[in-house]
């Protein structure tokens, strides 16, 4: 009861504060610096209560124009990737790590996690063969979803892989051969062969009823979005037609089963043949020949938002160099601009990172990289732009170092990285809580908010 009263009071306070910000946006006078600083403290205090207030409402994330919204508030994202959650949850001895990663991420203020909802034909497979599931592994995925909700983290669930890890398109082709399909010549037949398309469409994660919560996945607001595939590429058809056709069919298929959730493709974001004037932003000339096409692929009916990945070390040169930083900025800004001008949708940087195994690597370089990404997002956020957020690749809980391929971030080990991450989370939270459609999204243009977003001690 006590808590309830505090919530009401802080809610009223927040309303007044919001009204003030909104009315200031229409010609109110600027506060001086001192007032600003005091205001910031109030704002920070009120956000924490504000988050509590909404505790009982766990609504679907939706798209409005070029923004994500939840409960009439914008939902700008600071999040992370941990791909192996389902596989770890499938074994009692490692299950606790799933809880650990959500707990640690949530303490950093992260609100979205991207993870694999597939494991085809491999060790601890979810799908042992087409449409044949290991119930124990499915229960493990149920656990991941139910645990995410406990920590107020939403999930982007990817449905298949371009790469061979966890099966991927190569496994589908293998299954096709085992079933006697004789005209399969390349792993890209995954995209075009009618039988393999049927296999993909039969992967029934969407209709799964969670054994922990009894909520059907397609009804569960814990799921932020479905991703058709991790990093689809179709090198066998550089025109892009083959992949485009697959995206069209699968986006429609997923939306037909589940109209409530958002859908994204899972692309890395390379510009392709439909936009010769944009290929200059690609990290290399090879990128335009892998059968993907950022603008065209995202104009498909049923695709709600755009995805981009960012790996200067694997795309430009493995040797770490400060010259990668301007690429990071221009790569992101080009996609944000396209999402605003041509796609009218949000764009999420769904993977970005750098490997500690790269020659020339040091942790302050990684912090610079992360800060550059965060500030580029923030510059879009404060204008209410399409830059909807970013997901670190990749966050590991303590004691999983054996999984680290160099990209892993363990928050307890890197305190400077942790404070950069948590500062960004606070800024996103502040923006999300103070701006609403009630004031026509206009408080985001307000000077007070703008200054607060750039105040480093938040
Ligand atoms: C392979 O065979 C299927 C029918 O089994 C057909 O629909 C498809 O077009 C064939 N693909 C190629 C590349 O010949
Ligand atoms: C789920 O449904 C079963 C069977 O109806 C019921 O026994 C169980 O208590 C329910 N669990 C939850 C978390 O609602
Ligand atoms: C870390 O690496 C960057 C990029 O090569 C370099 O500019 C910087 O001086 C290095 N910092 C330290 C502390 O070694
Ligand atoms: C963000 O915008 C500010 C103010 O316009 C500018 O100084 C800064 O360089 C920008 N940062 C990035 C990373 O784009
Ligand atoms: C908000 O937008 C609506 C419709 O665009 C407009 O009628 C209304 O006057 C706006 N309100 C403010 C406070 O600007």
Automatic annotation (TrEMBL):
Catalytic activity: Random hydrolysis of (1->4)-beta-D-mannosidic linkages in mannans, galactomannans and glucomannans
Gene Ontology CC entries for this record: extracellular region
UniProt keyword terms in alphabetical order: Glycosidase, Hydrolase, Secreted, Signal
GO MF assignments: mannan endo-1,4-beta-mannosidase activity
Signal peptide: 1-22
Main localization (coarse): secreted
Transmembrane feature ranges: none
EC nos: 3.2.1.78
Domain named Glycoside hydrolase family: residues: 59-393
Subcellular location: Secreted
Pfam family, one: GH5_mannosidase
BP GO annotations: polysaccharide catabolic process
Family statement: Belongs to the glycosyl hydrolase 5 (cellulase A) family.
PANTHER family: MANNAN ENDO-1,4-BETA-MANNOSIDASE, PTHR31451
Protein name: mannan endo-1,4-beta-mannosidase
Species: Lupinus angustifolius
